[in-house]
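Model it.
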Amino acid sequence: MRPASKIRFRGVTFALAAALFWGLVPLYINLVDTTLPYEIVAHRALWSGVFLLSYMILKGDLHKVYAVITDVAMCKGFLVSAFLLTGNWGLFVYAIQSGHAIQAALGYFIYPLVAVILGMLLLREKLDRLGWIAIVVVVCGVLTKIGVDRQPPLIGLCLAVTFGLYGVIRKKMGIDPVTGMFIETLMVMPLAAGYLFWMAYDGQPVFYGGGFINILLALFAGVITVVPLLLYHAGNRDLPLAMASLLFYANPTMQLCLGVFFFGGEFTGGDGLTFCLIWAGIIIYLLSRSGAHQIDPKTDHSR
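Modeled.
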């Protein structure tokens, strides 16, 4: 049996690597030679499916897929979750391409607490007093953003709600994350392939303009989807829930830094107050969960 300190170090390494990997995705979006968000989403779905299929074969887990796809209720649930995930991907790509990287970061900052609210509404989960205080503080942060900009941060809110709904639906279905994501990509792959075939038929290059480098970049869309997913769940198995949740925020923090320092987004004093309130809400919520039990790898269906 490995010492707890060694397990904790391994878990932190995996979980932090996953968060940082996700945080660097905007750089990939900025690098590829396309202005079409759906082309990036199509490659992401198609090659994620290929890599996940290889992983499932190596693990000998394909029988799990058959058990799910023969269940009509499960298939309906996965159709909804696949739609939400694909929409979330597309909106995130659009946000980066249209200069709204800071709003995208805002969405992923508030998503976990949006998921808590949705869990209460849809799964009848309970929330303690500190949890309610955390949600109120985050809502104040969003209202501050609305007051400063005189319009709601629609992109950030839509990213948070779509990913929150996705998480709640997946939690309710109770399927392990890797198998679940493979089934979702399996459902989206025909549409992705059809879109790329249409591009080819229309005379458009289907690999970000063509050429060996762009072909590799298209394949890499699958890598940036599958690898952090596997790292994230490998890390969560070894960590307390509060620590795993805290490490997740390296993802939107990096996105925020990229939005300001790399993409040249404007970060106003109002934005600073908004993010301070959101961070305060996050800290309060994590403190309320500090006594949470260790994640059981058999029951970890998050993300």
